[in-house]
Amino acid sequence: MNITTIDGAVTLANGVHMPYLGLGVYKTKNGQEVRDAVTYALDAGYRHIDTAAAYYNEEGVGAAIASHPVARKDIFITTKVWNSDQGYDTTIRAFHDSLQRLGTDYLDLYLQHWPVKGKYKETWRAMETLYQEGKVRAIGVSNFLQFQLEDLMGNARVAPMVDQVEFHPFLQQPDLVAFAKANQIQFESWFPLMHGRAFGVEIFTRIAAKHQITIAQLLLRWNLQRGIVIIPKSVRQARIIENAQLFDFVLPQEDMEILNSLDEGARMGPDPANFNF
What we know:
By secondary structure, the protein is an alpha/beta fold. Helix content is 38%, strand content 13%. It has one domain (9-260): Alpha-Beta Barrel (TIM Barrel), CATH 3.20.20. Helix 2 (58-67) packs across helix 3, helix 3 crosses helix 4 (120-132) and helix 7 packs across helix 8 (215-225).
């Protein structure tokens, strides 16, 4: 991945360009809070917004995008089908409901939020239909482990283009990363800052201080240098701007290796293999 500026992108398996920096809006309140956050991000140069039906803020995201001078075609919008809507017909319906809430007639990326056992293949078939009809530019999954990807891909006409999973120095999932790379599935991280726990880790503090950057900037840049798309979440304008100031420094290999050595398999969120759907 060629890391250049805030508007840089990765190229997905089907040729679609996906900005490698986005704003996540998990737990951001619908209405003014999410509208402000999206506006701050677009003002700062972000061109990728990641939401989900389960976040209950698609309306606010759509309103902020509609009222911003940046053209819709220049903004990469991701949303996700929630577990209770999985299945063929219900996924189609959920997709159109999301479009209506977002106020757009197409999506850039549609993801399955979790691998709901017994349903994710039918959900995927619906997503393939939407993709082949041109209603979404790319389709992918979230929280799929390798065995779930292999099972899904065994029947798929279109392979997932993205897998959005928990990823940070304490949970690196090297086998899953390697599998995704081998199958042209773009890795995307959630909880890149360990749900806020990163700010109390001494080794992060020490490396960040050496480079005169914040811990957030350290871990986000580490993700980018690993070739991983990032969607840090914030509602504060200063933090949203700070999280995008990643392009005037490069982490040296010695520090990359220190961070790479910290993997403990430690999850901060649910385990996709043992999740109560």
